[in-house]
Specification:
Blueprint: E1 13-21, E2 33-42, E3 46-53, E4 58-65, H1 66-75, H2 77-84
Antiparallel strand pairs: 1-2, 3-4
Helix pairs in contact: 1-2
């Protein structure tokens, strides 16, 4: 399974690690010099979470990033998962006739 957040769509990004040596000019040196550039990956902080959705009266298991977990705390599980397309809208309960 790929490392992708199901709520935000965040995934592993690529970039560079830049190695430098020397003392900055502002500190009295001759300046920083780049001695090497190496490819690297920036992996996201993913977690499997089992979230209780009260509107559906059930648990939903999702793989989400730490940032998405903060979003769920702020906006609520039902609203966030609905906007992400992971669940369908809750059907209104039928009233019993006496």
């Amino acid at each position: 399974m790929s490392r992708v957040c199901q709520v935000t769509g965040k995934k592993t990004a690529s970039g560079h690690k830049v190695s430098r040596r020397g003392l900055a000019k502002a500190k009295g040196g001759v300046g920083k010099k780049t001695t090497g550039i190496t490819k690297r990956k920036f992996k996201i902080n993913l977690h499997w979470k089992r979230l209780w959705v009260a509107e559906l009266n059930q648990y939903v298991r999702v793989r989400i990033s730490a940032k998405a977990l903060r979003t769920i705390t702020k906006k609520g599980a039902y609203r966030t998962l609905l906007e992400a397309g992971l669940i369908s809208a809750a059907k209104p309960e039928k009233k019993k006739a006496d």
